[in-house]
Automatic annotation (TrEMBL):
SUPFAM superfamilies: Cysteine proteinases (SSF54001), E set domains (SSF81296). GO terms for cellular component: cytoplasm. Residues 170-233 form the Transglutaminase-like domain. GO terms for molecular function: protein-glutamine gamma-glutamyltransferase activity. It comes from Scopus umbretta (Hammerkop). This is TGM3L glutamyltransferase. Keywords: Transferase. InterPro entries: Ig-like_fold (IPR013783), Ig_E-set (IPR014756), Papain-like_cys_pep_sf (IPR038765), Transglutaminase (IPR050779), Transglutaminase-like (IPR002931), Transglutaminase-like_sf (IPR036985), Transglutaminase_AS (IPR013808). SMART domains: TGc (SM00460).
Amino acid sequence: MNITISSPANAVIGRYKLKLQIVSGNKVSSTLLGQFVLLFNPWCPNDDVYMANEQDRWEYVLNDSGIIFQGLEKYIQQEAWNYGQFEEDILDISLAILDRSLNHRQDPAVDVSNRNNPIYVSRVISAMVNSNDEKGVVEGKWNGKYCSGTNPLQWSGSVTILRKWYRGRYKPVRYGQCWVFAGVMCTVLRSLGIPTRVITNFNSAHDRNINLSIDKYIDISGKTLHLTEDSVW
């Protein structure tokens, strides 16, 4: 007997148990056939993450290595990065990140029911990659000494970071900065089937008071007055 299982394009991603139930007269028996993991499918035209171009799918889903640009606007450097989304246990770690999120801890049923939405999943992963907000994967540090952890410049891939977080009982990995967060997030999203790429921008606006403008105050002599925490960095 051959059995074909077709999941809806908007099905919730995650780990499923597959059971076979047999009814014979008044007797009902159930057998566990195994488990499977359902992912987003960029090859499926009805899936929200569908990409029609095969080259795009190769680059943004299947490619497990790439280049991350960093540095200054007039001095741009490129660093190789191992995304490693197909490495052993990375998918398990990605699912664990979802289950460790604040959303899941507050209301597991609502959180899981939203995991058919790639926008929702991306936002959860984005929050969880940065431990400063939700006790997630990587702890950020932008100055001082890094003797209590790893200098962000020394990382060359996501796999070591993710495994260290997972095997260390979800203790944030020290330390990361913007490109480290981006590289790790790219790995997790690609492992879940969401097409992802890392983009580097320079002169980033940081609007601390959320008024949709970057404010700068100067006195009559042109000296900067530190009356706002807005910045461009």
